[in-house]
Specification:
single chain; mainly alpha; Arc Repressor Mutant, subunit A; globular; transcription regulation; WH-like_DNA-bd_sf
Length: 67
């Protein structure tokens, strides 16, 4: 069951744009704040917040019951 959830999570992440993948990875797996991740990527913090919100919505839609 856990490997199925991990496989689905990886597939959902792969469905995002490369820039959104990087943002989500920095925030979720690396523990960066949105502001820190924005600096790394080279975008404004408010843009990062909006992108992260959209990326999370997309991930929830892809994962369905797993989200």
């Amino acid at each position: 069951m856990a490997s199925f959830a991990l496989t689905n999570s990886v597939a959902a992440l792969a469905a995002l744009s490369p820039r959104d993948q990087e943002l989500v990875t920095l925030i979720v797996w690396e523990g960066f704040s949105i502001t820190e991740a924005a600096t790394v990527i080279g975008i404004r913090a408010d843009a990062a917040r909006a992108r992260y919100s959209r990326a999370r919505r997309s991930l929830r839609a892809c994962l369905g019951e797993w989200a």
